[in-house]
Amino acid sequence: MTDFVLRGATLVFPDKAPERGDVLVINGRIEALLAPGEAAPSGIPEQRADGLHVFPGCIDAHVHFGMGEKITEYTTETAYAAQGGITTILGYFLNNEAYSDVFRREQEYARPRMHVDYGFHFSTANELHIDELDSYIRDYGVTSFKYFMNFKGEEGRYLGLDGTDDGFFYDLLKRSAEVGRPMIVCHTENIEIVNRLRQKVQASGGSTLGDWALCKPALTEAEPAIRAMFLAEKLGARVFFPHLSTRLTLDEVRFWRKRFDQVFVETCPHYLTHTEDSDLGGMGKANPPFHTADDREALWEGIADGTIDVVASDHVARKRATKDKSMWLASQGFPGSATILPVLLSEGWHKRRIPLQKLCATITSGPARVFDLAPVKGALAKGADADLTLVDLERERTVRADELGSYSDYSLYDGWTFKGWPVRTIVRGVTVMNEGQITGPGGHGEYLWRRIGDAPVRGRQP
After folding, report:
1. Are 327 and 58 in contact (CB under 8 A)?
2. For the segment 65-94, what is each residue's pLDDT rounded down to a tens digit?
3. Domains of the chain: total
4. What residues form DSSP beta bridges with 172?
5. Strands 437-438 and 448-451
6. What mean pLDDT do residues 166-194 have?
7. 8-state DSSP, 334
8. How deeply is 452 buried, as exposed, middle or buried, from its count of CB atoms within 10 A (0-12, 13-18, 19+)?
9. Which domain does 35 fall in, by range?
10. Cα–Cα 20 to 30 A to 415, which of 38, 210, 219, 274?
């Protein structure tokens, strides 16, 4: 049913304190927010959400497909996302080829399998991508493009990407300003410094997560961010920094925003929970690495004061076997979509008392605003899609990877108990997860053709 009135809940907004209210849904969209018990149109069925908090449907804006079992991941990883209350995901494609063929191929895989709504980011790795930037926006509804500042020489070869340089980055930012200012997503890493430090650490026998962090200290993240902000300001572009992990970089963003406000920031749940002192070994290897407890607390401060726009997973569905190796051979990253919200609620709301609206903003209105998903996504408002994440703030649950449904066979949080869990996930008025059970086959999710500064369009054609 896509027509109903949801009653008895507390509504959580990204821009004001929670309040009691009912939600009237007609044809999969929010028709009205009603006062508690206010009359709905005759014949509209009633659904109860007593004792629950209703968030706008949560958005995971940083997901990687194709690192495990490519085709089936569109089923497993969106079911996994729905388990965590996620109603929309944005997936990164990292390719050297023209994206026309990539887009057609991936849509054939994705359309019949997705449980939640979805969009794509494209990486930019060669001259063709710059030349075709405007067509990617116009023809494929992609308004965000990733650039790896560390992929110089052979650094990106493991992903099949050519090495670039600051001249390429300059042209990419310049071209983006000419075609409407799509978001340029910058992985900031000074690889020249990292390589020299890594040689020294490996030569000394380093093998821990602390040693991995020594290879990539905070300045190797912050210094490229400064260059990116400077170039973006001078060329009229917009930049977004994913997986920000250190106080130093966050402070530089704060400083720079005083003169140039087109800078946006993401962090990930694992930087909010783990530090370089962890004994996980290769299982905890990420890029950027875990840093200090002070860096972890700085990121929570950034959420509380609004400096951080987005919290996203950087989800990768790799198997445990690719991680359970020595530090230097283990793969990077881990699954994470299903545990974003429990981390924010348990560690942010219950432990640190960060207001719910601040946490809500980072996974609803923040990504919707940054990535051209507003106003139909990320809001509890008339006209928005009826994407709703129903949460029991008091529910305690221990994370067990085999209960969450990812192709990956482990979680960074296996055995952790979080307080505050999503219990129902609704996408455009249709329940896709209820009490830990996926309630329908894949294929409900629709592609979002994004438009710069305008609402996205759903479906097969823009």
Report:
1. no
2. 876 666 789 999 999 999 999 999 999 998
3. 1
4. none
5. unpaired
6. 97
7. B
8. middle
9. 1-462
10. 210
